[in-house]
Design a protein that fits this description.
By secondary structure, this protein is an alpha/beta fold. The protein is built from twelve helices and eleven strands. It has helices at 6-19, 35-50, 68-81, 102-120, 132-144, 149-152, 175-184, 201-217, 220-250, 258-262, 266-280, 289-300; strands spanning 26-30, 54-61, 87-91, 125-127, 158-161, 164-167, 251-252, 255-257, 308-310, 314-319, 322-325. A six-stranded mixed β-sheet has the order 3-2-1-4-6-5, sandwiched between helices. Strands 7-8-11-10-9 form a five-stranded antiparallel β-sheet. Helix 2 links the parallel strand 1 (26-30) and strand 2 (54-61). Helix 1 packs across helix 7 (175-184), helix 5 crosses helix 8 and helix 9 (220-250) crosses helix 11. The longest helix is centred in the last third of the chain and has 31 residues, at 220-250. It is elongated and about 70 Å long.
């Protein structure tokens, strides 16, 4: 008796490693109907129950393209036929005037909807279909915008969000393998036109930048970029832990102590200031290095300058040895 095709076996193994024993808990698969998430859903439908998991599916309708509602309904119908319960359609509304841009706004709305459905159905895990290629693209995009170690660390294979384990089982699997797995199982993926639309930075990286690197440096560059992300993620996690302790020590009333901040190494001080800015209400998608650098200047290059503006209409000033907001 022959086993499954190697591509199918690889996807099922990736899911088994990510999930572990289920104990009758529910895992939801985020599925757009594209090759990556469709292969993930099929692998989870096979491997999940054998580990004791109940497997459901949620597909997000962004309402950005004609026929999106019908497409989402078709994905949910396929899921129900494949034995995935519940099979959920989650419509969202994207504000085209959102200052973060349509790509980031859609991503934010999608994650909000996925986490909301996970909470509503008491799911213990949420599975996302990002691949090794997605991770390499993420690292390149982070390099282009001058991101620090946390940005270059890419997407985590696992993180906890409000009690839900957000898992990316396919983060070590090539996109071509997932397409092959779909073909071997008779699955017909939907091709999202946004993935080849050069108006979007990720689409340009996917169609031009990463292939050019592969041509110049060899196919190993994709895995090497992802490996760099994994190494930086480990370092960033350690530094984040130190920064959390330092943040508590720098608190002074409603602000931060300048003396305590000045005594920190640069790598920790930047993290403390970034954390504080988020706590003040600065939107994470709009908060960049230049904002943190301006806060840092209030500590390390103080010459009586006025307040620093943060996204979200927040102003931070220095007064009586503290950084305060207003």
């Amino acid at each position: 008796m022959t086993g499954p095709h190697p591509s199918v076996a690889q996807t099922r193994t990736a899911v088994r490693r990510a999930l572990g024993p289920g104990e009758n808990r529910l895992a939801l698969v985020a599925c757009s109907g594209g090759a990556d998430s469709l292969a993930l859903a099929a692998a989870a439908a096979f491997a999940g129950p054998r580990l004791g998991w109940r497997i459901g599916l949620v597909t997000v309708d962004h309402n950005l393209q004609a026929g999106s509602a019908e497409r989402a309904a078709a994905v949910a119908a396929w899921a129900a036929d494949a034995g995935l319960t519940p099979a959920i359609v989650a419509p969202v509304t994207i504000d085209p005037a959102d200052p973060v841009g349509p790509e980031a706004a859609a991503r934010h709305a999608r994650y909000e909807a996925l986490l909301q459905q996970s909470e509503e159905y008491a799911a213990a895990a949420l599975l996302l279909g990002h691949t090794l290629d997605d991770q390499a693209e993420t690292v390149l995009l982070a390099l282009a915008r001058g991101a620090g170690p946390r940005g270059l660390a890419g997407m985590p294979a696992r993180r906890e969000v409000d009690g839900v384990a957000v898992l990316r089982p396919m983060l070590g699997v090539r996109r071509t393998t997932l397409r092959e797995a779909c073909a071997e199982q008779g699955l017909t993926p939907w091709e999202d036109p946004h993935n080849s639309d050069d108006r979007y930075a990720r689409a340009r990286v996917r169609s031009s930048a990463l292939p050019a690197l592969v041509t110049a440096l060899g196919p190993g560059v994709v895995g090497n970029l992802a490996q760099t992300a994994a190494q930086l993620a480990a370092d960033a996690s350690y530094l984040d832990g130190l920064a959390a302790t330092a943040y508590a020590e720098c608190r002074s009333g409603s602000g931060l102590s300048v003396d305590a901040l000045r005594a920190l190494p640069d790598a920790l001080r930047g993290r403390v200031l970034h954390t504080w800015a988020l706590e003040l209400g600065a939107p994470g998608a709009a908060l960049g290095h230049r904002h943190v650098a301006a806060l840092d200047a209030l500590v390390t290059a103080w010459h009586g300058q006025g307040p620093t503006a943060l996204p979200g209409g927040i102003e931070v000033h220095r007064e009586d040895g503290r950084l305060l907001s207003r």
